[in-house]
Design goal:
about 325 residues, 8-stranded parallel beta barrel, two-stranded antiparallel ribbon, 11 helices, 12 strands, binds ligand PBG
Length: about 325
């Protein structure tokens, strides 16, 4: 009680504040998402993600060396493929010489110790822009899970360390885990997007990959953002099915969910600060309305405080230069 206790004593100078600081940020905390395209010496701007690029695999090769030199040791890969290669079966997703499979090998050649994580979902490969196989306007669960398990195996065969299913089909973690075990990929890590919401924050990402749904929305598979308990149900099931790391997505608007998972499950919790979150700060900073660097760092700390031990963020490269 005041004046016996004065809270400001513990805030009186920077040294004492540093001594008592509960959280820190390090390059080890970050996953860098990367967008890959075919071609030579291609580095394409993404309109709604200023400062972010799609790159061809030769550019990728030198880029990952730069990331490694900054202390960034994990990348999460997404590919943009031409419409002509898209269908309703994920044919290109399981092509051993597909863009994703080649990108994985490129990185492993350039920086062998880089942790390569791959997005597993059909949307970049789907003529309907959906994460699964479509029939009569419905997204089929079990046939999709079948393809996803083959896709995950082909990523592991190409050299991926971590498989990151972002599709939200039921039972996909179990099927992927079983398939990896059968084929002796016993050390492949599964990082499940276990609590992935049907969010409006993914817009810029869908621009980046031209992967917006061709009809309807993703609400029959991604979670309703009005719900909280559902995140725990999804996550517990994914862990039972064999997920090693679980993820909450988007990030900032879902810090409550990160904390719920941190308090209720033992698996490491990752947060994905998504494209819309990146775009908002870039836009406000460009207008001179917010201090870009200070807000960026504040937001990244909020993930740590909420309970995330891993942060996937488009700010990783900018952030490591400041911490
Ligand atoms: C694909 C996928 C999406 C994102 C990551 N993986 C888009 C979606 O589900 O529509 C979004 C990432 C971002 O917005 O940064 N399933």
């Amino acid at each position: 009680m005041y004046p016996i206790q004065r809270n400001r004593r513990l805030r009186c100078n920077e040294t004492i504040r540093a001594l008592l600081r509960e959280h820190s940020l390090s390059p080890d905390d970050f996953i860098v998402p990367l967008f890959i395209i075919d071609g030579k010496q291609e580095k394409e701007k993404i309109h709604s993600m200023p400062g972010y690029f799609r790159m061809s695999t030769d550019v990728l090769s030198s880029h990952v060396k730069v990331l490694w030199s900054l202390g960034l040791k994990s990348v999460l890969l997404f590919v943009k493929i031409p419409d002509a290669l898209k269908d309703n079966k994920g044919t290109e997703a399981i092509n051993p010489d597909g863009l994703m499979q080649r990108a994985i090998k490129t990185i492993k050649n350039a920086v062998p110790n880089m942790i390569v994580m791959t997005d597993v979902a059909l949307d970049p490969y789907s003529s309907f822009g959906h994460d699964g196989i479509v029939e009569e306007g419905k997204i089929l669960n079990d046939p999709t899970v079948n393809v996803l398990s083959k896709m995950a195996l082909s990523h592991a065969q190409a050299g991926a360390d971590v498989i990151a299913p972002s599709d939200m089909m039921d039972g996909r973690i179990l099927k992927i885990r079983q398939h990896l075990e059968e084929e002796s990929f016993t050390d492949t890590i599964i990082m499940s997007y276990s609590a992935k919401y049907a969010s409006n924050f993914y817009g810029p990402f869908r621009d980046a990959l031209s992967s917006a749904p061709g009809f309807g929305d993703k609400k029959t598979y991604q979670m309703d953002f009005k719900n909280r308990k559902e995140a725990l149900i999804e996550t517990r099931r994914d862990i039972e099915e064999g997920a090693d790391i679980i993820m909450v997505k988007p990030g900032l608007a879902y810090l409550d969910i990160i904390r719920d998972l941190k308090n209720n499950v033992d698996a490491p919790v990752a947060a994905y600060q998504v494209s819309g979150e990146y775009a908002m700060l870039k836009a406000a900073a460009k207008k001179g309305w917010l201090d870009h660097d200070k807000i960026m760092i504040e937001q990244l700390f909020s993930f740590k405080r909420a309970g995330a031990s891993i942060i996937a963020t488009y700010f990783a490269e900018e952030a490591v230069k400041l911490i």
